[in-house]
Amino acid sequence: MSGIHMALLGSAAGALITITDQNIVSYTSVPDASEAVYSLGGLSGQDGKVYEVTTNGGYNELEQWCTPTSEASNYEAFVTVTSGSLTSGVTGSWVALNVTRQWSVEETVSGNTNLCTFTVQIRRAGTTTVLDSATISLEAGVF
To answer: What kind of fold does domain 21-142 have according to CATH?
Structure first.
């Protein structure tokens, strides 16, 4: 994290925010649907971590985006789709990270693939400064 980010965080913020680019891929065979999910927060709520959920791979932790994790509920995320389209997930507005937030693509047709790329930004709630951002690529296919 840059010195500017650290200065903006200050001691009052109490958290280090870092997210990295991710590529999440999920393929399955007919007759099943395939889904690829990017998740900020765990199964039981916001825990300051990033997860991937895939049809065959299950639920896997990718990284910790908020240190300490106890501060995660003080932040918001903004997602902007840059190519393709999402099957689910809020885009175009800031959403509180006091609960688990997920963005996904799904494919149900044999021989097809659904791709979506988006940017996720994170800021402290009540501020306008983006503390970190990442490019996320989701791919779901059926063969």
So the answer is: Immunoglobulin-like (2.60.40)
